[in-house]
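Same chain as my last thread, 248 residues:
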Amino acid sequence: MTDDLGKRMADKMTASERDQSFPDSEPRDAATIMLIDRAGAQPKVLLGRRHAGHKFMPGKFVFPGGRIEAQDRNMEAATELHPDTQAKLMERVANPSGELARGFALAAVREMAEETGLLLGVQQEAAPKTPAEDWAAFAEAKVFPDLAQMHFIARAITPPRRPRRFDTRFFTADATLIAHEIEGVIGENSELVELVWIPIAEATTLDLPTITGVVLEELAARVAAGMAHSLPVPFYFMQDGKFMRELL
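reply #2:
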């Protein structure tokens, strides 16, 4: 099925985003977090500006995130995913499992730490058991990811015949989940050169990839609806040359 948001996404795509002249490839699993601060009158979302020298989306404002690593699913956590969130993460995948679902959420947490220095979770007296060096910062800071606080907001697959394709799961978590911050991660020579907290309604005025702007609308709708884990999750993909939006 399609709806207004799906049609608007197709209308908003730039000429570059519409270019499907590249060799086709399988999309890689990826995950990202839309961190929100709801302490004030207007909810704010965290976005990072990519380095202008990057070949992929130079200078664009994006949510911190990246590809899923095989060991992410084995990271020790303080809590596990809400059952509704886990069930939705297991829909429309080749080999669904609880381990795969938690791997998506944990990858988003790891990428947030790597790109921003923000470690999301719960700080405890003992260090968590880590499956790989990528998680060493969590052991050093004694921070356990808190998966029960992760909300699955949207999923989107890059259209076919694009130079880089991702099957991305968009999560959100509250800023109160920040348990530790590593200094010096953001800077002029980093992947993200700055971080901004901006009201969700104003974030679409930034230089964003089209999908980022569309998912911001989904985030605003989810906040207005009360953020329940049971709410449907929109899934964007292209089929027969048309953008589709289905609900998981």
